[in-house]
């Protein structure tokens, strides 16, 4: 298969989705907060280091699932040493038509593969959690950004966002990402990886929208009555307190717990809607949360990963066991 057909094949028909109980190499990357997550499980033959079986579990858009499925096909039958040479660009090329704005999905599966290989070789996962993330909105760390820039030879800020999501939300980390890209590109020029004329330089890109917004509190308005007491007939009439906003339909009489769960589900909806899917809160019965899936989220593959992601988000938020069940 070529082009979009190959993408659809890995998205909809992969036999490698699901757990692998006998795995002896496991790698994870991403999170619900990042918007996408993948767990890669490998069964590696101990005598020759050959990958006998590879499976994955993924949460996120169709590209995340397709990239994870493609990687399992690519590495099955290869040795660990051969698999370690596979790049994010190779995963994207194997898919045939991964959109540029979804390149971070190939990077995510690449990172999961590196973690799995490290676990098989007895190496501890790289401890990046101790350092504060550069992109706080999406939790993207400096080491991941540097690796991605270098391995994929990125030279523009738009590419950095497409491959890592960094600065893709509020853009307050724009200057940090810009400085990081310029520094790593300068090192790449010294190492002969890119020509000097291709290297990014500070100021080459227009600041993103949030960088152009004025900061700080506005100056207080002048008070013409500051010098003396204001006569009673000139004092402003106190405004009535604003009426509370009308609750969403279906939650008028809902208890606070249901409203909070509905709010948590709403936080996940944009990640699903961008690929034509959706998930909405229906009701709560004890510890069972009923939701309605629609669009691309309906189907054996997407429904399972979506429900798992929603459930993980709710358990993390409320600190108690909750079960998410779909209704028609």
Molecular structure report:
- By secondary structure, the chain is α+β, with helices and mostly antiparallel strands.
- The chain folds into three domains: 3-120, Sufe protein. Chain: A; 142-206, no CATH class; 256-326, Fe-S cluster assembly (FSCA) (GMP Synthetase, Chain A, domain 3, 2-Layer Sandwich), CATH 3.30.300.130.
- It is built from ten helices and six strands.
- The chain has helices spanning 3-12, 62-75, 80-83, 88-95, 103-120, 142-152, 157-164, 174-190, 256-273, 300-318; strands spanning 25-31, 36-44, 51-59, 277-285, 288-295, 323-326.
- It has a three-stranded antiparallel sheet.
- A hairpin with a 4-residue loop joins strand 1 (25-31) and strand 2 (36-44).
- Helix 1 packs across helix 2 (62-75).
- The longest helix has 19 residues, at 300-318.
Entry keywords:
alpha+beta; GMP Synthetase, Chain A, domain 3; 3 domains; 3-stranded antiparallel beta sheet; 10 helices; 39% helix; globular; nitrogen fixation; NIF_FeS_clus_asmbl_NifU_C; iron-sulfur; Nitrogen fixation protein NifU; metal-binding
């Amino acid at each position: 298969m070529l082009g979009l057909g190959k993408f659809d094949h890995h998205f909809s028909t992969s036999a490698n989705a699901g757990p692998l109980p006998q795995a002896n190499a496991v790698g994870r990357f991403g999170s619900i907060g990042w918007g996408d997550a993948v767990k890669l499980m490998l069964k590696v033959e101990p005598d020759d280091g050959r990958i006998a079986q590879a499976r994955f579990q993924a949460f996120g858009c169709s590209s995340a699932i397709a990239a994870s499925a493609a990687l399992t096909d690519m590495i099955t039958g290869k040795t660990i040493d051969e698999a370690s040479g596979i790049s994010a660009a190779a995963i994207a090329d194997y898919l045939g038509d991964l959109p540029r704005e979804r390149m971070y999905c190939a990077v995510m599966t690449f990172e999961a593969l590196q973690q799995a290989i490290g676990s098989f070789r007895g190496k501890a996962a790289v401890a990046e959690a101790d350092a504060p993330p550069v992109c706080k909105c999406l939790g993207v760390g400096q080491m991941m950004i540097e690796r991605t820039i270098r391995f994929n030879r990125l030279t523009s800020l738009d590419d950095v966002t497409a491959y890592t999501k960094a600065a893709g939300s509020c853009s307050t980390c724009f200057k940090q990402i810009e400085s990081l890209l310029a520094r790593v590109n300068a090192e790449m020029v010294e190492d002969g990886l890119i020509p000097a004329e291709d290297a990014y330089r500070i100021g080459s890109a227009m600041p993103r929208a949030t960088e152009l917004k004025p900061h700080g509190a506005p100056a207080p308005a002048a008070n013409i009555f500051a010098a003396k007491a204001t006569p009673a007939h000139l004092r402003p009439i106190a405004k009535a307190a604003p009426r509370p906003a009308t609750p969403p339909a279906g939650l008028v009489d809902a208890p606070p717990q249901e409203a909070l769960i509905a709010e948590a589900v709403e936080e996940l909806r944009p990640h699903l809607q961008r690929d034509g899917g959706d998930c909405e809160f229906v009701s709560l019965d004890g510890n069972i949360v009923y939701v309605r899936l629609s669009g691309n989220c309906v189907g054996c593959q997407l429904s399972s990963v979506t429900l798992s992601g929603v459930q993980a988000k709710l358990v993390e938020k409320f600190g108690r066991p909750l079960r998410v069940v779909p209704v028609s």
